[in-house]
Amino acid sequence: MSADNEPGDGATRHRARDGAAFEIQPCIDGAHHFTRAQWRAELQRGMTRLSPRSRWQRFASGIGQLSDRQLDELTDIDGTWRVALCAVVATGGDYEGIGVARYLVLPGTTDIAEFAVTVVDRWQGRGVGGALLDRLLDSARRSGLATLRGYVFPSNAAMLALCRRHGARIVAGTDFLQVDIDVGR
Length: 185
What we know:
single chain; alpha+beta; 9-stranded mixed β-sheet
């Protein structure tokens, strides 16, 4: 997977391991006129493109769709303390979401943020998750964060491998593994 040149509007162009093109951009972005309402709808559509296993590994439940409360939380971003980046492919003048990475600075801290990365099943294993995490780390670095912290099921080998490639410290918890990645200020 490789990154191409930056279009200059907050989006970066990438190539998956198989050569397929995709972009990563802020999920709510005036340059693409991608509104909160459109993002909410795309998140719901994205849920249908996740297998039951992928939904379980991301949400720790077998939910088939996101609740209004979950959608509110996922789309409440400010670009600094609450950040969300979307991986998209162009589809006839529009975009289809293929992945999302986000972080939220933890309450009571100014330098640790909880993060998550989700990629729809047909794009998994093609480098999209790594590209999303790289961009998320860049954003965290610009925001002055020290650590991105995630919670991963021990059975989620692909996500654990991705985190290890980024130098993660992994600590066993009761049901999840806590994954801390140094942002590298």
